[in-house]
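User: Predict the structure for this protein chain, please.
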Amino acid sequence: METLIATLEEQLKNSTKMPSPGELAKQASEAVQIDNETLREQVAHLNGRIQYLQEQIEEQQASAEKEEATVRARILRYKERDVQQKKELDDSRIELDNVVKSEAAARTRIEELEEALRENAGTLENHRAEIETMRVELVVRQIFLLRPSRR
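Assistant: Here is the predicted structure, written as structure tokens:
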């Protein structure tokens, strides 16, 4: 047991012993190398991520430019359609004004024709009355001429 205790005390002394400056430098150098390796891996990973994100940005920009061109083309078509509709509306208004003027002129002409027709109807009645008068006179003359004279 005494030898066992002596061995353990010896191991304890060795374990609590301070490492030498060379060992400390070696351990520090190894830690720095491990840190550097870890940092290199992180940098490589982050560079890959940056490149991936840059590609996504470029794709989004291309998509946005394409969409913008599509929207601009659609807006242009809408503006052209709007101009065309305004032109058609103006043409329709002019046509409506012309139709209203034509209607007014036609109404005036119809009124003139109705007045002329009334005048002609009156004249026709006068002529019929005159013809009837002449017929009666003719019948009276024929009767007078056909009757034997009493002289």
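The first helix runs from residue 2 to 15.
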